[in-house]
Amino acid sequence: xxxxxxxxxxDETAVAVLEITGSKIKPNFKLLxxxxxxxxxxxxxxxxxxxxxxxxEHRKNLPIILKxxxxxxKLTPPRPPLLRGGSKKKISSFTRRGKGExxxxxxxxxxxxxxxxxxxxxxxxxxxxxxxxxxxxLVAVNHLEGHIYASWLESEPPKFPLLALIVSGGHTELVLxxxxxxxxxxxxxxxxxxxxVFDKVARMLGLGYPGGPQIARLAQxxxxxxxxxxxxxxxxxxxxxxxxxxxxxxxxxxxSGLKTAVLYYLRGNPCADKAAVAYEFQxxxxxxxxxxxxxxxxxxxVNPHTKKFGVGVKSLxxxxxxxxxxxxxxxxxxxxxxxxxxxxxxxxxxxxxxxNAAMIAxxxxxxxxAKKFSKPEKIKxxxxxxx
Length: 387
Ligand code: KG4
Ligand code: ZN
Hints:
single chain, 14 helices, globular
């Protein structure tokens, strides 16, 4: 089975082709193409993503990367005029397995939310047109399920029940999944998302967009400097920011107070060492994310002390742009090793943390398998779509 996936929820235009072989119990995923065209350069000068610009760029980029993806995946490409609306007859031969037919496409998956609605609509309309022209069924995918399902592209997939921590530019959520496509949100951010607060603090520090990688780089330089002074970066750093809601006893997050604390600190200390600020800020975010994840593992996994089960979480999945953060990856790795050695950790590989269509294709496969297809005209962009 082959799935073509389209992702346009924010500032990455992405198209992927995924081949699925093996059995239903143990499907094998082979990514035949994973095209991502980033618009970062365009939005950078505005300090964030401009929805209408993103929409325009998606419209321009989609036909280009579709062509590239089809070529790379060696799917019989429809001739160029067909992409602009050729005859149905010619195109349907693209999907039908016939004489001389090289390849077949079984479904198209498309992100329908959450995200920027004008941007989402571009992907949805494009996918709808292809689905009609090629007569292929369409699957609507939630971007957040994509971030979770990215972990199925690893050689060892996660096991149910699993706990997922989604940390992206728009979301911070702890989710419990007892089986495929079954999501229970345990907690989420009450204000800013983790990635959002990285971006905002980066702006305060005069760093570029997106801020996450820039803060991570600065924080790393602070750590290296501290090490060169034979001190741990934590002890070396005299700045202390709050860890909001770290002991709230629930699984919700709040990062806007942390953002304000950084703002006030910078106002009061205009000559502050930016690397030290970045280090302490990043550490505050990581501490909260790790503590809440540990709390959730304790409640829903095996209690390491009493050996009693919650629901017995077997895997921890981390996905979303902020999952690329090395300090977070390191801290979660250390947590699992120390306190939850029986839980398998699945942190998306770096190339799958940011937005891409490969993850949408995997989620699309599980939805297609469950026969969750949608008619093109029924799919609507939903900026605030929940899991
Ligand atoms: O998942 P994603 O690519 O898009 C959304 O779905 O929102 O996440 C983007 C977010 C941005 O806020 C970006 O600053 C953050 O992920 N990010 C990072 C890192 N790389 C990207 N945050 C912290 N550390 C990083 N290394
Ligand atoms: Zn994302």
